[in-house]
Design a protein that fits this description.
There is one protein chain. The chain has 12 helices and 16 strands. By secondary structure, it is an alpha/beta fold. It has one domain: TIM Barrel, CATH 3.20.20.80. An 8-stranded parallel beta sheet has the order 14-13-9-8-5-4-16-15. It has a 3-stranded antiparallel beta sheet with strand order 1-2-3, with no helix packed on it. A 3-stranded mixed beta sheet has the order 10-12-11. The longest helix has 21 residues. It is globular. The N terminus is likely disordered.
Amino acid sequence: MKPILSFLCALVSFAAAIEYVRLAPEGKSFQLHPSGTRYVPWGHNYSSVDVLDRMEKDPARIQREFAEMKAAGTNVVRIHPEMPRLMTGPDTMNPTALDHLKALLQVAEKVGIHVQITGLACYKIKDRMAWYDALNEQERWKTQAFFWASIARVCAASPAVFAYDLVNEPSAAGTRAEGYYMGKMGDVEFCQRLTLEPGKRSHDDIMSEWTKRMVAAIREHDRQHLITLGMLPFPGAYQKAAAPLDFVSPHLYPKTGKVEEELALLKRFDWGKPIVIGETFPLSCGADDLRQFLLRSRGTAHGWMGHWPDESPTVLTEMKEAGKATIHSAIWLSWVELFREIGPQMTAER
C-alpha cells in the first residue's frame, strides 16, 4: 500500500475534534460553530518546504509536528502548498496533490488545529511553470480562479479549514521587464504581481477586480469558510480591495525600539473587519520587543501567526542546554518560548 493510503487508513478511526470557524455576530471577532465558543487564532506559518511534498514523503512527520504545535498552544497553521504541484495545466489539477491536501486536513481535524490555505504559491524559482507565466492577464486570472474553485470544492466540507488566503503579499502591477515575481530570498520569491498589463487602470482598480474574481470563484463552491489576503505592511495598497474579504491579514515584523510605530501601523489596517496578523517573528527585533508588540496589539488585532521552526523545539532546547546553539537556532527557540509563554494571555477573554 502506498504511504499516503496507509496513512489515511490510520486516520479513519479518529473522529473530527474540531468545529467550523465563523465570524462572530458583531463582525469583529471569530467564534466556533455550532457551539458559539469564542475563537482567537494563535499559531504559525508551517513548513519552509512545499507542505504537499512533505505530506507525500513523510506524512508521519506532519502528524508529529502538528501534535507538537498543538502541545505548544497552537490552534491554527498557515500553509503554502506550491501551485506547480497542484496544477498540471491552465484548467487541470493534479489529483494526487489534492489527495495529499485532503490528508493534511484530516491530520488537522484529528489533532484539533485549523488550517489557513495560502494559494497561488510559486515560491521556488526552479519549479515555475513556463506555460503559466506565458498567459496573458485574463488567461492567468482565469487559471487562478480555476485553482481557487478547485481548492474550495475539495475543502468545503472540512471543519479544519480556517480560511482561504488568496495569495501571499501581492502587488497590483509591474512591467514585462520586472516579471510577475518579487520578494527574493535565496532561491525563492515570496511575492507576486497580479498583472503586467495594467493599461490605464489604477492600482486600486486592479487589486479590487482581481480580489472580487477570486472570492467569487471560491464562493461558487464554498459559502461558509472565511477568505482573506496576505498583506504587505502598506495599508493603502489593500484597503479598497478588502471589501469582499472576511478579515484582514497584514504581515508585521516589529523593529528593535520601534514598537509604537508598528502598533500605529497595525491600527491603519482597522477597516471594520477582524485583523489577523498573518506573519510576525523576532526577525528585526528581540523577543522582548515582540512580546510588547503582541500583548499591546490585543486591542486591535484578533489573531496572530508566527513561524514554526523546521527543527524540533526539543532539539533546539537541547542545543541551547549543551551550549551548541547558533544565532539562528537561538532566534527560533526564542519565538517558540515566547509563543508558549504568552499564549494564555493572547487567547484569554478580554
